Write the structure tokens for this entry.
Amino acid sequence: MTSFVVRIGEVLAQNNPPLAIDILPGDVSAWIPEDSDCQFLLQEGNLGIPHKVLLRGYIEAVSIFLRSKKALSSIPVAIEEHKDLYAQLTHSTSVILIANPAHQTALNVRKRLIAMGLIDAQRELRVMAAILSTREGAKQSILWHHRRWLLRRLHPANGEYTIDEDDDEDTLCSYAIPTNALQIELSLSTQASETYPRNYFAWNHRYRCISTLVNIHEAASERTALRTIVLQEILQTRKWIELHISDYSAMQYYCRLSNILQKSSSDDIAPVEFTPLEHATALLLRYPEHESLWVYFRSAWLLSTYAETGSIPAAVSRLMFCDPKLLSGLLPEKKLAVENHAQRLQSFMDRTGSDILRKLHNNL
């Protein structure tokens, strides 16, 4: 009988691997008829694996992986006679990453197999998308890093882009990645944020993709299409924040998006009405007990003209002094929380104001 590891590996090695993976509670008996020799479900492009089956498969996969990895270290290039070894590594790492998406060694071996031409990079993107659909996968920074490595491998460098001193080696900005490919990444980020709440790594990946989109098309003829994408991104992010008022990662992304649009050299790309401070203020006045919104306001304030003078909107000033009219509907413990948040904001502004005055003095 074909082993579980081989079967799962073959499913993921298809040209069209599953769109999503679900880890099902319980054992195989709860999901699959007794007369079936299959240990997983594959329906409408979705792969379902019972949790206990996956745990047993993980033990098997690790054993195969360690044995095969040792043999791989002595092979410098792809050789036809070792195709069984490559298949074992491909299949075992697939199961390992479903069960343990933080397995860096398994990812490194897959990178090597891709570099040797033994795993197709485009198909690998689809496999990683399926693994990122799981709760454990969605929150793993190394999977998002692996996707960006694949995108850089698949797409040529953009010779027109000038490397900025703030760029790191994980940037996508210097690569000519098509708009449709970047939109897939944005959709994947949204899915991962729904799967795992307050997903910093998904929002960070999203920022890298949207900044690449702006950089690539800033001097191109696709400005109208780009403006549409950016405006849609703004509206979607604002709506997301309004529905997830504890998701500071989304708020930070919104402020960073505002920053890159302000720096954009094209008036066609940067929307005229883009005011994260107004958005943060409106939400803060509505839900003043939520700490994430105070931090959101602080980030938005730093990007505004208010920061240059050390002032704040009048409504927030009233809130900081705990105006009874603004806090009338809150319970005593929530009023206390507002007072604590207001004190922290005041301390932050005092420190920031001193830094601003110091910089102005140094520039005289």
Remarks:
- The mean pLDDT is 86.
- Residues 322 and 339 are 7 Å apart (CA to CA).
- The two ends are 80 Å apart (CA to CA).
